[in-house]
């Protein structure tokens, strides 16, 4: 066996890496012999004040109700290449999608400082009063016109909702009235960054001050490496509406103290405090043993805003030690695992539903408002549906409140199959619940449909009897029994609907679907359905 190939696979698997084709060697090419460890010192990031006038960003009080916070910094004498430039743009996009929460919390603007004149003003104006050339455009547009243009832009349309219903839009000007950006939507074309840009002005605006500072720190620390004075970031002054001024970026180093025995206990290793300090230093967390010899002082750089607790430091120590090097041990106490009762009940019901001749379907948990309301003869406000705030398509606007639409759409897609079509699904539905901390809760439902030239109500009724028999629920109104009572429902044919009562509570309905419902789901034959909540039977 190729030893080098095996070892490289093992190392990559341990560290979560992917081998590149260039790294794969021939069988005769052995791994290099062990030698002195290559030690690369962690960079020290510094904020410097310019010799001349410091760049200033002034925030006006008009921004208070829309995006009240802003921070700024300057990367001086940076040298871009094609790869560095592409990476610079990609970094901003990644930050926007993650910590910035799709620009809702923070929006990043980067500008060619040599094309601008400070000080800069961050304010808010009526959309009709904002006019400029947006990025990669040659014509000036008002903010209103831009919002209409970008409604069809696959990239920018997702950010319009953040400000489009506001009376004022945020905007940043330089001292000559040139628009730098209209956050969080688009930058101005005048200060566009290119490969030839040498001085970059970075501004981050948002609704979360802490996140804005973190985002700014991430950008300047990653790209100050390419400045003439490496890891040096030029400060910028931000003046808030109350007159107070602050200097950014913060680039703050902070220190934490963690006990070595805590790290050993949590990771499951037995290392000396000195060795643990070396492991953490290897992770760019400069560490040293202090105090009684069991305490480790860790210096956390501005690049590690993710470290907020001792457990985060423990995790880094485990990574440096190597997960595969941690000795596996048996638990000191015996634990017996059990299947979640609701899932166990679900599995048993699935098997028996299949034995009854029904085919299982798995449908989407998200659907359109029409599916759970209009097509079933209901008003959307009466469904207690959980709405998706920014759905990608009209097909995924809400979380389903019933399993019936998904099965009917499945039948519609399989109308050419031989009749009868007998489908079922056992899955969760979601409804609003103000008593829950998340404002909603799940219920496990069972739904079955029978589609044929005749309604087949007796088949659905028989299926209900079989389900109750399996659940040891006897028929009748006695304690612990079940009955069906005549009822009405907008989705069912008048006089062909019944409510199912079991153990003293309503658990669902069964009946023949209304012709309007059948037509709206593009079906042409009668259909009967059954849907119950299975959780009361646990």
Question: Which secondary structure elements does this structure contain, and how are they paired or packed?
Answer:
Layout: H1 3-15, E1 46-48, E2 55-59, E3 69-75, H2 82-97, E4 106-112, E5 120-125, E6 131-132, E7 141-142, H3 143-149, E8 169-173, E9 179-182, E10 186-187, E11 200-206, H4 209-223, E12 232-234, E13 236-239, E14 245-248, E15 254-259, H5 260-267, H6 273-282, E16 286-290, E17 295-300, H7 310-321, H8 341-355, E18 359-360, E19 366-367, H9 369-372, E20 398-399, H10 404-413, E21 421-432, E22 440-451, H11 457-470, E23 482-486, E24 492-502, E25 505-513, H12 515-520, E26 527-533
Parallel strand pairs: 1-12, 2-5, 2-13, 18-21
Antiparallel strand pairs: 3-11, 4-11, 5-8, 6-7, 8-9, 9-10, 13-14, 15-17, 16-17, 19-20, 21-22, 22-26, 23-24, 24-25, 25-26
Helix pairs in contact: 5-7, 6-7
């Amino acid at each position: 066996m190729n030893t080098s190939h095996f070892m490289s696979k093992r190392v990559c698997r341990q560290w979560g890496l992917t081998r590149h084709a260039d790294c794969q060697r021939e069988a005769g090419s052995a791994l290099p012999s062990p030698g002195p460890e290559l030690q690369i010192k962690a960079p020290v990031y510094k904020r410097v004040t310019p010799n001349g006038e410091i760049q200033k960003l002034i925030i006006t009080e008009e921004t208070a109700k829309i995006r009240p916070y802003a921070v700024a910094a300057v990367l001086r004498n940076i040298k871009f290449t094609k790869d560095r430039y592409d990476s610079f743009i990609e970094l901003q996009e990644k930050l926007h999608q993650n910590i910035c929460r799709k620009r809702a919390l923070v929006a990043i603007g980067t500008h060619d400082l040599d094309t601008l004149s400070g000080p800069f003003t961050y304010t808010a104006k009526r959309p009709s009063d904002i006019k400029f050339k947006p990025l990669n455009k040659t014509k000036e547009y008002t903010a209103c016109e831009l919002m209409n243009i970008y409604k069809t832009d696959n990239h920018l349309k997702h950010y319009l909702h953040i400000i489009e219903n506001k009376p004022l839009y945020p905007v940043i000007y330089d001292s000559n009235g040139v628009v730098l950006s209209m956050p969080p939507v688009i930058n101005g074309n005048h200060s566009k960054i290119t490969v030839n840009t040498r001085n970059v002005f970075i501004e981050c605006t948002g609704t979360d001050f802490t996140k804005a500072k973190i985002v700014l720190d991430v950008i300047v620390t990653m790209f100050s490496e390419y400045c003439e004075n490496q890891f040096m970031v030029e400060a910028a002054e931000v003046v808030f509406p109350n007159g107070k001024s602050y200097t950014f970026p913060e680039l703050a180093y902070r220190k934490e103290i963690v006990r070595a025995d805590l790290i050993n206990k949590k990771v499951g290793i037995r290392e000396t405090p000195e060795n643990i300090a070396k492991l953490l230093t290897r992770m760019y967390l400069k560490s040293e043993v202090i105090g009684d010899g069991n305490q480790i002082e860790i210096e956390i750089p501005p690049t590690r805003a993710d470290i907020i607790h001792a457990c985060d430091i423990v995790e880094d120590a485990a990574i440096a030690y190597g997960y595969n090097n941690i000795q596996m041990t048996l638990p000191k106490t015996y634990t017996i695992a059990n299947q979640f009762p609701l899932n166990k009940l679900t599995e048993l019901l699935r098997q028996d539903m299949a034995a009854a001749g029904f085919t299982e379907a798995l449908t989407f948990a998200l659907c359109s408002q029409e599916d759970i309301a209009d097509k079933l003869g209901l008003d959307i406000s009466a469904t207690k549906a959980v709405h998706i705030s920014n759905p990608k398509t009209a097909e995924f606007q809400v979380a389903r409140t019933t399993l019936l639409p998904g099965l009917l759409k499945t039948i519609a897609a399989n109308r050419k199959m031989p009749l009868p079509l007998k489908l079922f699904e056992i899955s969760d539905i979601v409804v609003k619940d103000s008593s829950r901390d998340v404002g909603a809760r799940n219920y496990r439902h069972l739904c079955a449909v029978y589609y044929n030239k005749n309604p087949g109500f007796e088949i659905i009724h028989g299926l209900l009897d079989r389900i109750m028999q399996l659940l040891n629920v006897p028929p009748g109104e006695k304690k612990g029994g079940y009955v069906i009572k005549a009822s009405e429902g907008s989705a069912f044919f008048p006089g062909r609907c019944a409510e199912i009562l079991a153990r003293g509570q309503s658990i669902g309905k069964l009946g023949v679907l209304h012709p309007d419902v059948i037509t709206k789901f593009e079906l042409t034959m009668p259909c009967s359905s059954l849907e119950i909540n299975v959780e009361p039977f646990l």
